[in-house]
């Protein structure tokens, strides 16, 4: 490659030319702005009125051209059927309500204060519970007159019928006999519900026997397998025997009472 070295005179002429060109461009720019200046504020803002827009032209509607048909017009259809309600109504079904089973009450109320104590003869909800009722039968663990389960029978403590208890009317008439009784020994050892099972033939002797048994007889109550006192029924006979003294002694009637 070939290089040409410039002289100082040549470099000076080039610098003057560049300066002259720059000055010419600046003058041209200033002169152009002076000739074409912007408008004054008064001339830039001008007010004028704008009128309303003209109404739109009405749209022309073209009626369709109808060609008459040569066919005859059809007749109207017959009236349709109208729905009417049926007068026959199905009867309301009768739903029978279930009849609750009858509650059989025990003749003797239950003993104890446990939540299951009661006199129901079947198990079920509520405070009553079956299985150990105090009936008058002798099966299982009932409190009847028979030999039931592991219960201990009542034990006599005190009370008796004496010869002096013989009714005067029966003694004067010479009436005697055997009275069959059935009475209930309650849990407190007292006698309740004395009944005559066999009459002596004298209503006075029968009534006296039951009355004195209820007033005087006391027992240790019967107990079940758990040691609880339970009612018990006792069946026994009492005999009223009337005897007179031999003829060698003054006629004085003797009255004797016995337990056969």
TrEMBL record:
Species: Sphingomonas naasensis
GO biological process: transmembrane transport
Biased composition (Gly residues): 125-149
Principal place of residence: membrane
Record key words, sorted: Membrane, Transmembrane, Transmembrane helix
Annotated GO CC locations: membrane
NCBIfam families hit by this protein: tonB_Cterm
Protein's recorded name: TonB family protein
Compartments it resides in: Membrane
Membrane topology: Single-pass membrane protein
